[in-house]
Amino acid sequence: MTAEELRSIISAGLPCEHLAVEGDGAHWYATIVSEGFAGLRPIQRHQRVYATLGERIQTNEVHALSMKTFTPAEWLAQGGDA
């Protein structure tokens, strides 16, 4: 799997205002900004992202994914671009 493929899968299942993915093909790092995270605890946000990946997580197609998840307001407060 490539970073672009992973980015496409996540963005198809979760509307994202910002999505950055990098990694080595097995271990991935993503910064995800979505209004869909509003009102959710961090674990719930991660569960939403994992749900977009479906069986790819269970079959090890995506071995490891570290995430930073933000709402658009949180992202702007962190210094992210609009």
How would you explain this protein's 3D organization?
With 82 residues, the protein is α+β, with helices and mostly antiparallel strands. It has a single domain (3-77), classed as GMP Synthetase, Chain A, domain 3. Helices cover 40% and strands 24% of the residues. The chain is built from 4 helices and 3 strands. The protein has a 3-stranded mixed sheet with strand order 1-2-3. It is globular and about 35 Å long. The model has no long low-confidence stretch (mean pLDDT 92).
What is the CATH topology? Answer: GMP Synthetase, Chain A, domain 3
Instruction: Tell me the span between the first and last alpha carbons.
Output: 29 Å
Number of strands: 3
Mean pLDDT: 92
| Mass-distribution shape | globular
The side-by-side strand order for the widest beta sheet comes to 1-2-3
Architecture per CATH nomenclature, i.e. the level-2 architecture = 2-Layer Sandwich
Indicate the percent of residues in helices.
40-55%
CATH superfamily: BolA-like
* Count of discrete alpha- or pi-helical segments spanning 4 or more residues: 4
What composes the largest sheet?
A: 3 strands, mixed
- In CATH, what is the class? Alpha Beta
Which strand-content bin applies to the residues?
15-25%
Order of helices and strands: HEEHHEH
Structural class: alpha+beta
The multimeric state of the shown protein is: single chain
Model regions low in confidence, pLDDT < 50 over at least 5 residues: none
Radius of gyration: 12 Å
Domain module count: 1
Protein name: BolA/IbaG family iron-sulfur metabolism protein
Family: Belongs to the BolA/IbaG family.
Organism: Xylophilus rhododendri
Pfam families: BolA
